[in-house]
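User: My advisor asked me to double-check a structure prediction for Iron-dicitrate ABC transporter ATP-binding protein before group meeting. I don't want to rely on an old file, so could you generate it fresh from this sequence?
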Amino acid sequence: MSRLNTDQLSLGYGSRHIVKELNLKVPDGLITALVGANGSGKSTILKSLARILNPIKGGVYLDGKLIHRQPTKEVAKHLAILPQNPTSPEGLTVRELVSFGRYPHQKGFGNMSKDDNEMIEWAMKATGMSMFSSRAVDELSGGQRQRAWIAMALAQGTEVLLLDEPTTFLDMAHQMEVMTLLEKLNKEQKRTIIMVVHDLNHASRYAQHLVALKDGTVLYEGQPEVVMTSQMLRDVFNIDADVIPDPRSGAPLCLPYGLAENPVEDIPEISADREVIFPNHRDNRIEATA
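Assistant: Sure, here is a fresh prediction for Iron-dicitrate ABC transporter ATP-binding protein from the sequence you gave:
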């Protein structure tokens, strides 16, 4: 079953089309990972699912209704998005940041209700951020900061979370910290999570559904065990790789060992007299500076 889906969705910026006639159904209650090379349309699709980017053609549907025709506040009660590298005003505390998640549920500029405060406290507790409630967001570590933003998304009380590269620029420990939190939210609260992921091994380990994109088109889709193959890696990423079961989790583990097609041109030679000699252009010599 799918509450969120696209129908003949075409997206782009100006005259540049990135996604054409996409038909995608997001499985309810699962973690779905969008994977693909840079420029494949992953983030563009996520923005459209979140109603940030309007379609050129077709549409995004939430519970059978066109999402781009629904009021912003109404959509925000069902969908929360964490964009790439979010920033907050200097000095903003964790609690203040998380409280922004209650905006869709407030009328005008009224004070926080009892329900609002309870949701804020719950979101901070669920993400392990209660102890940092009064700490400034810009004083936190990378993993803590990302958890604070996820807490804000949770405070919205939505059934669906959209995350654009949630582990970007985080070290390995903080990456696992964030991914483990998302896995916990999915398993314990049945949250539907759609995330753009660059690390293929994170995608296959933590997601139950993979969508592999190339040039705005879905080439492969399904469970990691079905999608994560050497052929998919060649077709989508232009790499040669072995795929083996992870010795601990059993999830497919990608071990790249080369490019399927080497796009790098021959490196020019440098002669003893410091001249650059370009392959196939032996008569075209450029003096190299020391």
